[in-house]
Amino acid sequence: MSGTAGPRRWREQRWIIDSVLRTDGLEWDQPRIVYTQRPMGPDAAPDFQVARSRIHKFADLRPVFTELAQRRETLGEEAEKARRPVASREHFFYAALLYATAEWPVWEDGALLVGLDDRKNACYTSYARLADHHVERVDIPFGDGHLPAWFHLPRDYQGGPLPTVLSCGGMDAPKELNVSLYGDTFLERGFAVLAFDGPGQGEASVRGVKFTPEAWVAAGAALFSWCERRAEVDSGRVVGFGLSFGSYWMSQIAATQPGLRGSAVGLVCHEPGAHTLFGTASPSFKARFMWMSGLTDDEAAFDRMAEDIDLAPLMSGMRAPWLIIAGDEDELSPVEYSYDLAARCPAPAPMLVYRQGRHALSLPTSSVALGPNWLTYAADWLLDRVNGLPAEEYVDVVLPSGRLERRPHPKETARPGRPEADRR
After folding, report:
1. Could you tell me where the DSSP H helices lie in 55-131?
2. d(CA 44, CA 88)
3. Secondary structure (DSSP) of 203-222
4. What confidence category does residue 421 fall into, taking pLDDT thresholds of 50, 70 and 90?
5. Domain check: are 67 and 139 in the same one?
6. What is the mean pLDDT of residues 147-170?
7. 8 A C-beta contact, residue 329 and residue 271
């Protein structure tokens, strides 16, 4: 990123970012090691231990992760030549996710970013060829471009339509992170999974499909159109799953696609205008999102556009059950905004809220450690939806002991209205 691009705070406070990175490590703004390693498994831990030891400033991120990815790619090629397909599969999977991590700090379109993305795609394609289940590259037509996706079917799939999850991560989590190398939560429950990058996200943004406040509504229509054409997808049993900023995007799709049977969103980004995320959190978030929006060089235009980030106008269209999973001390999106949206939602909108839980729900708070696994909870809840079970409406608070305490839903306790902090 050039010296004049990105938000003012990023340019003027770069020395602070490097100082914090040296003291707090490469997860100063978010637990990227945790969410990247989760689909990889424990055997990838040494790669991240090396990264921790070698990354001391922001400029180290790309070269260190590129080198680690290249090493895994070479190991994958060598294992395949030695006719060790399982080892090769694993190395290629690790390489793809390491290349994706190397892409993250590159917030400028150009050959460098495209080259890294090409290597990521090549490695994931090699993994798909060797995977223990069907993995297929999909390019879904969208405007003048396409939405890139990977379509996964459960092991031992024998044909016929399956319940299907439309799965997206957040602003920093590309589609390759959405399905685990082994024992994936959704595949193990018999779901097919369409893991995709939407407008502004991951590969879509690299290839020119940028974010706008309305783009994901159109993306939802394109995704459903694709689902209806695939024999493997039971188009009457499609559900959505979105994390972090994907909690906003998947909610846009859920509120505008009546065919969805339910959606589960977590690690929420529900604050109108994303004022906390873009204004007071680490400026790395805003810097990346400006690139995602094609507004890297125009912070004023980005700020005007961000004011249109708001789910409330769409809530009246939510017809299928909508599960919200959040921490009550989310530092990127105050949980009060999620309560407000749940109160506005005409469909059942149950909530699972972790006491002292922060945005990523991966930091060592006792409610997260001792309470229900939020990913398993979401998968089982979505499985109930495709199996036709009615959804209840509740707020389950996970206490520090791990015990669930059921509390009244906001529809019962308050008239829907914006929290005072949003009345600007």
Report:
1. 61-81, 85-103, 111-130
2. 14
3. HHHHTT----TTHHHHHHHH
4. very low
5. no
6. 97
7. no
Domain end: 97, 131, 165, which one? Answer: 131
CATH number of domain containing 43: 1.20.1440
**What residues have CB less than 8 Å from 92, skipping those under 6 apart?**
72, 73, 76, 123, 124, 126, 127, 130
Residues 177 and 36 in one domain: no
The boundaries of the domain holding residue 72 are: 31-131
**Alpha-carbon dihedral angle through residues 357, 164, 131, 204, given to the nearest 10 degrees:** -70
254-313 pLDDT, tens digit per residue, is 999 999 999 999 999 999 999 999 999 999 999 999 999 999 999 999 999 999 999 999
pLDDT in tens, 57-107: 999 999 999 999 999 999 999 999 999 999 999 999 999 999 999 999 999
- Contact of 249 with 200, CB cutoff 8 Å: no
Does 18 fall in a domain? no
pLDDT value, residue 415: 54
**Residue 68 in domain:** yes
Strand 395-398 to strand 404-407: parallel, antiparallel, or no bridges (unpaired)?
Answer: antiparallel
Cα separation, 108 vs 360, in Å, equals 26
CA dist 216 and 212 (Å) reads: 8
pLDDT at 416 exceeding the cut of 90: no
End-to-end CA distance of the chain: 32
Q: Are 361 and 267 in contact (CB under 8 A)?
A: yes
pLDDT for 422 equals 39
Instruction: Assess whether 105 and 210 both reside in one domain.
Output: no
Give the per-residue pLDDT at 423: 31
Distance separating alpha carbons of residues 212 and 203, to the nearest angstrom: 16
Give yes or no: residues 319 and 233 share one domain: yes
| Four-CA torsion 344, 347, 352, 357, nearest 10 degrees | -40
Task: Indicate whether 143 and 229 sit together in one domain.
Answer: yes
